[in-house]
Amino acid sequence: MQVLQAPDAVVMIRPHHFCSNPETRDDNAFQTLSNHSATATSEAAMAEFDGAVTLLRKAGVRVHVFDDTSTQTPDSVFPNNWFSTHTGGHVAIYPMFAANRRLERRTDVIEMLKRDYRVQDVIDYSGLEQDGLALEGTGAMVLDHIGRIAYTVQSNRADPVLLERFCTHFNFEPIAFAARDAQGRDVYHTNVLMGIGTEYALVCLDMIVDAERRRTVATRLEQSGRQVIHLTHAQIAEFAGNAMELTGDRRILALSLRALRSLTTQQIRIIEKSAEPLPLDIPTIETAGGSVRCMLAGIHLTRRTERTDQ
């Protein structure tokens, strides 16, 4: 089974002190405030997290879970922003925009990857934070691992110079574009408006500001042989674009229950031609402005030996 676009293993971080991050609220229009106490919110997020891990493992996905007990890292449940992995044994570590998100990086995750998977090199861009640069991983970039394209929304989370540097190092072609939501607000991360599977792509083309770039994105997705599933602004607001295809006992599309409920019957049928939707119920976690895709750091590396999952 093709796993290049749909990895069979992920890293997930269990949050012990989850909350909606005040340092990212200004430019993340998807964030909302919880009506519950800090303790209740944190407990609900952990329960949602554990439920998601159980369902992913039941579907045959290998899940490496790390606990975060810090009170200084409210977004730690979204590890896809600070590192990514790539075929050939390559790992990237990224500079983050918000100061408290920089605290999410942890050496034990990288050491696990080196121990359990074949890692050839680790390229660490995080020092560029000192120059005011950010490139927030597979939140800032939606990667077509088969066609080698890095679709990227222009924002303070995706510096253009650093994007070019990443694409040169990792052999991707950058396609950058401005995007805004229905209220005219700039989109902060690319993975809220598009997700790329092996045989289909979920995307809200209407959010791409420039008509020529809109046509370019649509054309390149179609040329890759994928069926384009056109999402509406309303579906994006329900996190329908924030989904990730994975390989377990079969190919699945991991997305939130809220996202799945927003899709039409026809859209679901297109997905089901190549992947089974796997809805995860994470309403508390979604108040932080991210959804299922943000929770999953895909492992696109070759496993060394059979080991017991964490």
Automatic annotation (TrEMBL):
Name this protein carries in UniProt: Amidinotransferase
SUPFAM superfamilies from the UniProt entry: Pentein
Source organism: Shimia gijangensis
Alphabetized NCBIfam families for the sequence: citrull_CtlX
Gene3D superfamilies according to UniProt: L-arginine/glycine Amidinotransferase, Chain A
Domain of life: Bacteria
Pfam short name (any one): DDAH_eukar
InterPro entries assigned: Amdntrnsf_FN0238 (IPR014541)
